[in-house]
Amino acid sequence: MTSATELPQGSVAASAQHVIKKYGAGDTEVQALRDVSIDFHAGQFTAIMGPSGSGKSTLMHCLAGLDDASSGVVRIGDVTLEGLSDKEVTRLRRDRIGFVFQAFNLVPTLTARENITLPLDIAGRALDQEWFDTVVDRLGLRDRLTHRPSELSGGQQQRVACARALVGRPDIIFGDEPTGNLDSRSSSEVLSILRAAVDEFGQTVVIVTHDPRAASYADRVVFLADGQLVHELHKPKADDVFAVMRGLGEDEGN
Ligand SMILES: Nc1ncnc2c1ncn2[C@@H]1O[C@H](COP(=O)(O)OP(=O)(O)OP(=O)(O)O)[C@@H](O)[C@H]1O
């Protein structure tokens, strides 16, 4: 199978070193990340978990260049985000990062095909038809390509969002609660696709999730509490993830 990424397996696809993120100042200051250091290796599927307010979204947003760290170093591949202009960060996001959001974020007036190729069209990059076909067939979207989002189920819409993230062969795909709006069957479908993106396409995937079952698809689960990394599991079962979450004070797993 063709590899989606130029990065060699095991190299670092994204990294945060001593990242601190503060919001506000003075009495209202919140330290959302307190000296977080973590590497995300190419060809791995990582889930970020932790109680509400522990800093998961902040960490993902800093890694993806959607927000600036207050201090510390963030890298995507070999590029350090600090010091890049807004335009350069936008280009880096466009060229090296794929996103899958909870809310799908598809353009309602465009067909599935047009939504999938939109980032390439915006970037003025040529479509690799063979790769497009591979992704579309693997995701079971061949007979849905002319449909608009309103004519697709939630699970199908999220599969289109996964295809959109994959088709540009990014260094890394970030998912912000990608199964948050899906029923359990569609969740399983989307998680299997993200798993396959890693196993079959050599992709690197990082998701934020509250769901221990979703996290059990990952190679590695990292836990944040109060802005710090506090625990990590490798190839965990959902029960193991649930037990750690309980210990961190999230007894409902959400
Ligand atoms: N734009 C902001 N301004 C001020 N405080 C913020 C901002 N964004 C996040 N925070 C604070 O930073 C901390 C971490 O928030 P973050 O959204 O990263 O947590 P989370 O683990 O993703 O939470 P959840 O699971 O509820 O989505 C929280 O205390 C939050 O209130």
From TrEMBL:
GO terms for molecular function: ATP binding. SMART domains: AAA. SUPFAM superfamilies: P-loop containing nucleoside triphosphate hydrolases (SSF52540). Residues 14-251 form the ABC transporter domain. InterPro entries: AAA+_ATPase, ABC_transporter-like_ATP-bd, ABC_transpr_LolD-like, MacB-like_ATP-bd, P-loop_NTPase. PROSITE patterns: ABC_TRANSPORTER_2. Keywords: ATP-binding, Nucleotide-binding, Transport. It holds the Pfam family ABC_tran. This is ABC transporter ATP-binding protein. It comes from Gordonia phosphorivorans. The lineage of its organism: Bacteria, Bacillati, Actinomycetota, Actinomycetes, Mycobacteriales.
